[in-house]
């Protein structure tokens, strides 16, 4: 009976496992192999060069510029997005006496709306917002007597402008995620805390945050992965792209440029391997450092 059940389960799992190996594991293995070659992408010939591509990375100023910018994005984007999403979710879900606010569903739809737009549409839309002469942002600033800026052409502002777009487009999804997590908290616990005289900030800090910690952990991992990428918006919005003066250079853009502009697929694969291990390291560190005993509410 047991052997028949095992064969039954193995039969169902065989095809998905084969497809996973072919469609997921095989491309990873090919990328690791290509990172050790000088493949140009247009012929079957690929000479094995060992770790030469990785040695080149150490002397590549654009790689270091991309790593620096990705590091800044990793520090800013997840923290700001999670804080904003937690604040908005708490206002919509908890409200006064833990009962939420009227029209919370409509607010969630408005916050979630950027998720319905593709990255390309968001990038083009915000290009018009940041336009120096007649853009929406400068128009609003000038209406208040503040001089407009060339947001995407100023090396000191370009990356911050891109990060603001990432936060704007991502916050709504995590508002919905955190709202769902907060709504799963029994109302009796929140009401009891309010009856005992606890303020809303105290309730949020001592009750709500511990119970949604796992959701925050997941959010940080996904936002961190997005911050280590950042390719699409930088490609669409910035001059160069990656400019001005490498101010918005990111690792994903360097990978794309080396592969499809310079035809150096082996070197681009090495950059992709570095990006893969950076992302994997981030996920492992976040999961290990934030791992605590699970809190269950009955």
TrEMBL record:
Coiled coil found in the keyword field: no
One CC-aspect GO term: plasma membrane
TM regions (residue ranges): 72-94, 106-129, 157-180, 219-238, 265-286
Keywords, comma-separated and alphabetical: Cell membrane, Membrane, Transmembrane, Transmembrane helix, Transport
ABC transmembrane type-1 domain ranges (all copies): 67-286
GO biological process terms held by the UniProt record: transmembrane transport
Membrane topology per record: Multi-pass membrane protein
Family annotation (InterPro entries): ABC_transporter_permease, MetI-like, MetI-like_sf, TAT_signal
Keyword NAD on entry: no
Top-level taxon in the UniProt lineage: Bacteria
UniProt subcellular location: Cell membrane
Family that this chain belongs to: Belongs to the binding-protein-dependent transport system permease family.
Protein name: Sugar ABC transporter permease
